[in-house]
Design goal:
This protein is an alpha/beta fold. It is 39% helix and 16% strand. Strands 3-2-1-4-5-6-7 form a seven-stranded parallel β-sheet. The protein has a six-stranded parallel β-sheet with strand order 10-9-8-11-12-13, with helices on both faces. InterPro entries: Glyco_trans_1 (IPR001296).
Amino acid sequence: MKIVFIIDQVYLHGGIERVLSIKANFLASQQENTVQIITTEQQNKKPCYNFHPNIQFTDLNINYHRTQSYFHPKNLLKIPNHILKVKTTLKKMNPDVVVVCSHSVDTYFIAFVLRHIPKVKEFHYSKFIEIDKRQNASSMFKRLFFKFADFVETKYNKLVVLNPDEALYYKSKNTITIPNPLTFYPETVSKLDSNVVISAGRIAPVKRYDLLIDIWEIVHKKNNTLQLHIYGEGEASYVAGLQKKIEDKKLTETVILKGATNHIQNKMLHSSLFVMSSDNECFPLVLLEAQACGLPIIAFDCPHGPKNIVDKGTGLLINMQEVETFAEAILKTLSNTHERKLWGTNARLNATKYRIEPVMEIWTNMFKALKTCK
């Protein structure tokens, strides 16, 4: 089967890029498949994750201005060339199925290009964030745009969402729920005897690391032997703001922004607890990775990802914004060795449900069904 994935780039560390590498590598390792990846702005940079040598890359060299809105004139002028290049490239590749990964400009026109080729759109963010914008659209343009987006979604053969709660937000009836696959399942697990609590993800406002710093201030006052290590990268000005907050609270020795890493598995194996403070999540792969390493998890009960992964047997979900409750949960978990290890054992068992083989079987069966209908 000939499968094409479309994404803006694969040189930046991110959940979408990492999941793409895992799925594409699995498919490319099977002799019957040909896997190609089309990017729009790779800029001759090396992929930040490892890809199977059989995967063919094609960059369209569109290079949108990422600091500007896609509706900015500079970007709007690039769209006709983008459409033409995609159409020409897909016609040449003649795939059995096309999968659109990232939520960028191509989301809104790929479904209409070479209609005989089945198209799949993945959604890696929670549509919860659109509720208020849809109900209180500030202009006619925004209201029309949401209607247009809903219309476009009906034109894809399948919309892949990451958890059953997300499917309820879509007006079209072509959704299918497929969770992210685990990126790793180590042979060993954490001993859960470290003084390190870990968090990881894109450093962005939605992740609420600012609240996590507030939480840690409370933790530190009651136990100054613990450390919080935060892994990830983000916009320099935002990262600088977090660092200043850490310094202002005199937490520089206990809260450490570690930056991006290609060795998150090793970092998790040398930690005792994973924490997540996000405002919203769809299906956070990093929680599965933490569970695979045998880590218990404490997270805000945000829409909708954590509650689809964490339960009372594997960690705790804290009501949104309850900073003191979150801090107390961290202290209690790290002081209760028996409960911590029981949660870690259960977490590891839960992670097995998301190993790559059963998840990719769902993808493969969907591809075969779409090919049959082609």
